[in-house]
Structures are given as C-alpha cells and as structure tokens.
C-alpha cells in the first residue's frame, strides 16, 4: 500500500474496529458480575451462564440475518437500525426484574450487536482483496481485539462504584456512541448495482452455495470451532479464577483482559508476516498450537496446579485463536466479493452457535473444577484440525475458491 492508502486504511480500521469491539464488550463486560448476579436473583451459576448462552445465540443468529440484509440493502442502514436496537435492549437488561427476562433481553442485545461484527467485516471485503485484505483484516483485529482486553477491566471498574445494573447502562451509552458514528462517520461501501436480491429464497440459496463450497466450509469450521472453545473459557474463568483460586474481581479482570494482548499478538504476527508465509501455513500453526495448549490446561486442571500454570497455556490458546482466525478469514472470503455479507455472516455464526452450546457445559461439574474447561478446549482444537485436513488439505484446489494460496 502507498503511504496515503495506509493512512486511509488505518483510519477505516479504527472506525470498523470500534464496531467489532461491540461483540466482546457485550459478552465480556458483565463477566466480573457473575457471582453478584447469582446472588441478586437467587439463581445458579448455570442459569447465569445461560444468559451468556442467550447472548451468543443472538450474536450468531443475528449475523445470518444482518449479513444477508447488508448484501441487499447496503451496509449503512442495517447498521443504523441495529445500533438503535442495541441501546434499547441494553437498557432492558439493566432493569430486568428476574433472571428469565435477563436471558431474553440478552438474546435481543446479542442479536443487535451482531450487525457491528458482520457488517464491519463485509465492508472490509467490499474495499480490499488478496494480501491487502489480510493486512487490513489484521489492522481491524488489532482494534477489535482490544475489546476482550478492555471489556472486563471496564466491567470491574464500573462494579467498583455501582452494581451490575451499571454495566448494562454503560453498554447502552456505548451503543449511543456507535449509533452516532454510524450516522455521521460511515459512508456506504456497497453500491446499488452490486447488491443482491433480498427475498428469503435467494438468501437460502446463497447460504447453500457457500456451504457447498468445500474449501470455504473447511476454513469456516476450522476457525469457528476453535473460537467456540474461547467461549468455554469466557464462561468458565469467572468462576475458576474467583472461586477456585480466590482472586478479586479486579485481578480476574486483569487476568482475563491479558488474553486480549495474546489475541493482538497472534493477529499481528499474521498481518506482518503474510508476505513471507502463506495464510494456510499460519492457520495450521495456530491449530497445532491450540492443541498443545489445551492439552496443558487439562493436565494443570487435573492436578490442581497453581494459578500461573493455568494462565500460561490459556494465554497461548487464545494467541493461537488470533493466529488461526486472522489467517482463515481472508482465505475464506477471497472469492466471495458478491456475497461478502453472507459469507462474513457464516464465518461469524458458527463460533457463536457452538459457543452457546459449550458455555453452560463448563459448569456442569460444579464451580470447583477446571477439568471440563480443559476437555472442551482439547475437543474443539482436535475437531478444528480434523475439519481443516478433511475439507481443505484433501482438496487444495476448488472451483469456487481457487484464489487461496497454498502452503
């Protein structure tokens, strides 16, 4: 890229990255309040974790809807409507009278937040392709990955002077800011002549074509299954760190937020080295690193090792996610110029749907063991590697995805 193009790319990445952080903030900011919410509603850890599951379901299903809508109506208008809905649903969560309604409102909140994730990525594909897409996506992730770093710290800070209700009020204010950014700072990137029909049958056919693309499916599953493991980590560590190891909400926020650094390290490694090594090489390395790190988590959990011995492999696991997801996204999106919204939606929906399944399973053995977390991480890493080898490596050249590079 020229200097001028780099400056424009950085400015756009900063703007789109803000929308990408909406997902992590919606998921992570209330995590330090889990024990408080259990006490407030006289509920259980599993039910409070189910409010996370509802949010993940909303984030996943919402991407399917928002991706198709943005292919048909452009990127800007669906984003405006979604940000308004996010503000209202966040306020509804803040004043939910019981755990059941909190779960319902969390689903709506996640559904609205999904637009920020999927549309920001579709805009990236509207404007870039090839190696430029890889480099821009790494910039986008550099900003977006600050969300997991900042969200629990912000949540802990809010909880230091108010209750969990203040967390959702803060999220509503974040939504107001992003609504204003959409209105006054974001231009339309999908011209009318490039838009797809918006009828439901056409949308289903578009998703069907994508799912029949063997390499797209392989990259989608390799990335999605790995990221689903992160949601087990998100759901389990509030109880593991605070109940088993006895850390304070502030220390938990620091430990949890440190993994935002590991995501940034992983994503920037791919962005800076993509001219030397292929994306497929980085993807395979990330998958293997995750497998080794998750095996270490099981060992530490089984012997009830010290806190640092658990934090280190978890840090490496999340770093592997940063590597694998940054490499897999441009590989999957390269040939999807006309269906960028739908393709980005499918790439986003699998992690959230699978995450919604695994999040409650972390607490199935109670709040005093980390073994289920290790098992889920190991299974997700193993299945992701199998998906990559069976669907991508077994068929290196596909008619729809011939633009991907090889190892």
Automatic annotation (TrEMBL):
SUPFAM superfamilies: MFS general substrate transporter. InterPro entries: Efflux_drug-R_Bcr/CmlA (IPR004812), MFS (IPR011701), MFS_dom (IPR020846), MFS_trans_sf (IPR036259). Residues 9-396 form the Major facilitator superfamily (MFS) profile domain. Its main location: membrane. GO terms for cellular component: plasma membrane. It is a multi-pass membrane protein. Belongs to the major facilitator superfamily. Bcr/CmlA family. NCBIfam families: efflux_Bcr_CflA. This is Bcr/CflA family efflux transporter. It comes from Paenibacillus soyae.
């Amino acid at each position: 890229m020229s200097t001028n193009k780099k400056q424009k790319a950085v400015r756009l990445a900063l703007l789109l990255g803000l929308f990408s952080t909406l997902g992590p903030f919606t998921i992570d900011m209330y995590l330090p309040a889990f024990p408080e919410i259990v006490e407030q509603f006289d509920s259980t850890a599993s039910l409070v974790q189910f409010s996370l599951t509802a949010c993940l379901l909303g984030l996943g299903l919402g991407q399917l809807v928002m991706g198709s809508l943005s292919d048909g109506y452009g990127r800007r208008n669906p984003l405006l409507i979604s940000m308004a809905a996010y503000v209202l649903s966040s306020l509804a969560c803040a004043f939910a009278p019981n755990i059941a309604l909190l779960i319902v409102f969390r689903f709506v909140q996640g559904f609205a937040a999904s637009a920020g994730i999927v549309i920001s990525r579709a805009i990236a594909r509207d404007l870039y392709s090839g190696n430029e897409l890889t480099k821009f996506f790494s910039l986008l992730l550099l900003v977006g990955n600050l969300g997991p770093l900042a969200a629990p710290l912000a949540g802990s800070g809010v909880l230091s002077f108010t209750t969990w209700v203040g967390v959702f009020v803060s999220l509503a204010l974040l939504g107001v800011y992003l609504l204003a950014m959409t209105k006054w700072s974001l231009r339309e990137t999908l011209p009318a002549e490039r838009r797809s029909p918006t009828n439901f049958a056409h949308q289903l056919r578009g998703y069907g074509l994508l799912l029949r693309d063997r390499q797209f499916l392989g990259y989608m599953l390799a990335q999605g299954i790995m990221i689903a493991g992160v949601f087990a980590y998100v759901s389990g560590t509030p109880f593991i760190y605070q109940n088993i190891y006895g850390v304070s909400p502030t220390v938990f926020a620091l430990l949890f937020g440190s993994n935002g650094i590991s995501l940034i390290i992983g994503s920037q490694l791919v962005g800076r080295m993509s001219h030397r090594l292929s994306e497929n090489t980085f993807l395979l390395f990330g998958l293997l690193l995750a497998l080794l790190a998750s095996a270490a988590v099981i060992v530490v959990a089984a012997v009830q090792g010290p806190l640092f011995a658990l934090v280190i492999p978890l840090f490496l696991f999340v770093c592997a996610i940063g590597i694998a997801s940054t490499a897999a996204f441009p590989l999957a999106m390269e040939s999807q110029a006309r269906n960028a919204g739908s393709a980005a939606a499918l790439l986003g929906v699998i992690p959230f749907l699978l995450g919604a399944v695994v999040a409650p399973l972390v607490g199935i053995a109670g709040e005093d063991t980390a073994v289920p977390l290790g098992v889920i991480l190991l299974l997700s890493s193993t299945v992701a590697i199998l998906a990559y080898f069976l669907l991508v490596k077994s068929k290196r050249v596909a008619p729809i995805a011939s633009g991907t590079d090889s190892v």
